[in-house]
Design brief:
Elements lengths: L19 E6 L2 E6 L10 H15 L6 E6 L4 E3 L4 H9 L4 H17 L5 E5 L2 E3 L1 H7 L3 E4 L4 E3 L13 H4 L7 H8 L5 H6 L5 E2 L5 H9 L7 H10 L10 H12 L5 H9 L7 H11 L4 H14 L4 H18 L2 H10 L17 H6 L10
Helix pairs in contact: 1-3, 2-3, 2-15, 3-4, 3-14, 6-13, 11-12
Length: about 375
């Protein structure tokens, strides 16, 4: 699935059946996640294809920038192909360990990439999709964008650098997003610093055409910013999370998930009460262990650099299939679809703080 990269006017393009499409136009390498029927969920071959293209283009002096997008109108990328990881674990295979190592390496490549990367975050941007987008220099969203780190819903924790980018949001916003797994829309994504630009989806085709006609004059990053400024804005009015922030900062700064839920249950202020009750109810459906480990991971992430955050997540991954709730969550929500996961422990009040802490005991603050 390797695209031929050429500086000549005639560019070689991946065949349409490839799950990653690659094309070079006007000195820009375009990478398209091409599994629209699966909401562009990313699997190991896609990770490897993306990595290969990025490595090649990093060395190609004709390539000035990279654009990432998802095929179709529903999703940029709705996360990793969890079913394949479940099957790997059940079959005593190695895919579920190799996948995370290579996915995180890809995300780190994007964070450190020498050329500007523009992520067109149209539609769902969930889990692994956030890992790709948050490593990009320019993150563009639309009215169709839905961003989330929803891992706790399937008994997992927010990885792909979540321990880094969630902890760099205002106040306790990242803690709230990671522990709850809720989706946010454009205005909140901009408010939280998880996106840089907003434009209407109806302008994306015109933006693409403008990229083809872009005159390279300053640095590639500045040229791209100047172009985006004619299509997009940095802020939107009425971000719901801005209104809720005082309560979020208060509740999600507490030391444990049971404390957070208890605090939300005591809220009586009319402007917060309904949201607090709904959030408490939601948290009580998530994996108690997943939320507790997430909370602890995010506390660690505040003091770690990017490389160390990925190392911490990989440290948790290597334990999670045996000790965590992911296999049960995937069974209940994806395999059997009975939507009644049997979490271990089943309730927040049965959490053992020593057990939660044990996931972090042997972590060494070194790079991946």
């Amino acid at each position: 699935m390797t695209a031929q990269v050429s500086s000549s006017p005639t560019q070689h393009v991946e065949p349409p059946h490839s799950t990653v499409l690659a094309e070079v136009r006007n000195h820009i390498g375009h990478l398209t996640l091409n599994r629209p029927s699966g909401l562009n969920a990313i699997d190991l071959p896609m990770v490897r294809s993306l990595q290969q293209h990025l490595n090649t283009w990093a060395q190609d002096t004709d390539i000035k920038a990279v654009v990432l997008r998802g095929a179709g109108e529903k999703a940029f990328c709705a996360g990793g192909d969890i079913r394949s990881l479940y099957d790997s674990y059940k079959n005593n295979d190695t895919l579920h360990t190799i996948f995370f190592e290579e996915e995180y390496a890809l995300d780190l490549t994007l964070h450190h990439y020498a050329k500007p990367v523009l992520a067109l975050m149209d539609g769902y941007v969930l889990g692994g999709g956030m890992g790709l987008a948050q490593g990009s220099d320019l993150r563009l969203i639309t009215e169709r964008s839905r961003l989330a780190m929803p891992e706790v819903a399937i008994g997992y924790f927010p990885d792909v650098g979540g321990s880094y980018f969630l902890t760099r949001t205002p106040g306790q916003m990242g803690t709230y997003l990671g522990v709850s797994g809720v989706q946010i829309r454009a205005s909140d994504a901009l408010y939280c610093g998880l996106a840089d630009w907003y434009t209407d989806s109806s302008k994306l085709a015109e933006l693409d055409q403008s990229l083809d006609n872009l005159q390279w004059q300053q640095s590639p990053l500045e040229d791209l910013k100047s172009l985006l400024a004619s299509f997009a804005v940095h802020t939107l009015p009425d971000a719901p999370l801005a209104t809720l922030r005082p309560l979020i900062d208060e509740a999600f700064a507490l030391n444990s998930v049971p404390d957070i839920v208890s605090h939300l249950r005591t809220v009586t202020a009319p402007e917060y009460r309904e949201w607090a009750t709904e959030t408490a109810n939601l948290l009580e459906t998530r994996s108690p262990l997943g939320m507790a480990v997430t909370l602890e991971m995010l506390r660690h992430g505040r003091t770690l650099d990017l490389q160390q955050c990925f190392a911490l997540e990989l440290h948790l991954d290597r334990q999670w299939f045996d000790r965590g709730d992911l296999i049960e969550g995937v069974r209940a929500l994806i395999i059997d679809k009975d939507k009644t996961p049997h979490w271990n422990p089943p309730t927040l009040h049965e959490l053992d703080s020593a057990h939660v802490a044990s996931f972090f005991t042997d972590f060494k603050q070194s790079g991946v």
